[in-house]
Write a structure and sequence with these properties.
Length: 452
């Protein structure tokens, strides 16, 4: 087979390669954050029942999708490895099988979600209005879920080739449409009826279909390294499928652990009182913006490490990780300085309640000290996953959540009745431990010899 070049030009400086990968990934995360903010703002103008219905429905759907969308982690590692080895045929075979599996998962999850929406809401809440609105919203948004997992996996495949612009474009098309359609359908503009929270569900579901269309067009009709055929989507090769499952299951379990831990701890934090819970929510919303650089450089590290290992260049893979960590820590450290120096101004952008802003600012000032550890943990985790070590990050997540975060927050809230700021100190401790454990696993070097 004729050799194919990497999407990222190896003749470019390493810093430029990293930024070309990380930049669009950061912008992709920004798009997701903006649409979440816009959704919250618009639905927030409706009734409390609408807010509860949308928040519950969206949380259920996107958590489940994120768990099964972890199939993309295995796809990225395998595709990047084969692209680095210039074995495009093997990369295409892996990509086809990953998309085929994701389509079946999307069909199963979306159909189940639509059928069980009402029974689930009946078990979760007692308010008949929330049950009715939540059922309508969830059924509408799950229509898009048929395509959301395939879109996530497709974008992961494209990132594995070294192209992060198409996933950004897919997110941009979906999220811009979602914001416009939310405004039109929620409030009844441009001749459309005012559908309230159901309109939000229709907008989100349709946006997911449009985003998937962009991803699929590139994979099946575009000019990328990998060009797939619909006829080969369900032609499975046993060893390749086993590798995908072996790499992706720990990633899915990691998502389950992290999401479950956050959910449980948020329930516990609510016991500190309304102001404390509101302040915590505002601080988390503000801090979420700082995760974008970490995510972007984690994507860059995963792609470059996978491709360098495929090309038989473990030293270059190590240098890619080192440089990604340095750049990511620099950016997130800068955000940490802002969190420490002007927390009241930043939190004032998210709330006008004085008590909420006061406690949120005190919390985010403590959160400043976790920015560099978070960046190190995220980026090294991305590098390990790009090498095919998905089990390590899952085990570390298990340790930091079950041995640090949850027991310490439980003691702080229920035993010692400490204020919210202590919870944030615990969060800093968790990320420091996570960064140390990620670094320790990475330095052992076993990731260099993993076969995908």
């Amino acid at each position: 087979m004729k050799s194919q070049p990497l999407v990222i030009n190896p003749n470019q400086s390493l810093n430029k390669q990293i930024m070309l990968l990380a930049g669009p990934a950061i912008m992709e995360m920004l798009m997701h954050t903006l649409v979440w903010t816009a959704d919250t703002a618009m639905v927030g103008r409706l009734t409390p029942a609408d807010m509860a219905a949308v928040n519950l429905g969206a949380h259920m759907m996107f958590t489940i999708v994120a768990i099964f969308g972890a199939l993309g982690t295995g796809a990225t590692a395998m595709v990047a490895r084969y692209i680095g080895a210039k074995d495009v045929q093997k990369a295409k075979q892996t990509a086809s099988q990953a998309i085929g599996i994701s389509l079946m998962l999307g069909l199963l999850i979306a159909t189940t979600g639509i059928l069980l929406a009402r029974p689930i809401f009946i078990r979760l809440v007692a308010d008949p209005q929330v049950i009715s609105l939540g059922t309508e919203y969830t059924r509408a948004v799950y229509i898009g879920a048929y395509f959301l997992i395939p879109q996530m996996v497709g974008n992961a495949i494209i990132r594995g080739t070294g192209n992060t612009f198409i996933p950004f474009l897919s997110a941009a098309v979906a999220n811009i449409f979602n914001i416009v359609a939310d405004y039109v359908l929620i409030f009844g503009k441009l001749g459309f009826p005012a559908l309230g929270s159901q309109g939000a569900g229709i907008a989100t579901g349709t946006a997911q279909i449009l985003g998937a269309a962009v991803t699929f067009y590139y994979l099946f009709r575009g000019s990328g390294i990998i060009k797939l055929s619909f006829r080969k989507l369900f032609t499975f090769e046993k060893e390749s499928v086993k590798s995908l499952v072996r790499l992706s299951v720990p990633a899915g379990l990691e998502v389950t652990m992290n999401e479950g831990s956050r959910l449980i701890s948020s329930f516990w934090i609510a016991q500190l009182g309304t102001v404390a819970y509101a302040a915590h929510s505002v601080a988390v919303a503000g801090e979420s913006l700082s995760f974008m650089p970490g995510y972007g450089f984690a994507v860059a590290a995963a792609t470059l490490v996978g491709q360098r290992l495929g090309a038989g260049q473990p030293e270059a893979a190590m240098e890619s990780t080192k440089r990604s960590v340095l750049l990511g820590a620099l950016l997130m450290g800068t955000v940490g300085v802002l969190f420490f120096t002007i927390p009241d101004i930043i939190m004032g952008l998210f709330s006008t309640n004085e008590d909420t802003v006061y406690w949120a600012a005190r919390s985010i000032r403590i959160g400043a000290f976790e920015q560099v550890p978070i960046s190190i943990a995220m980026i090294i985790s991305g590098a390990l996953k790009g090498a095919g070590d998905t089990d390590g990050p899952f085990r570390i997540s298990l340790i930091t959540n079950l041995c640090v975060r949850l027991p310490l927050i439980f003691l702080a809230v229920f035993v010692f009745r400490f204020p919210l700021t202590v919870v944030w100190m615990i969060s800093v401790t968790q990320y420091v431990v996570e960064a140390l454990l990620m670094t320790r696993r990475y330095r052992k070097g076993k990731w260099k010899t993993i076969k995908v």
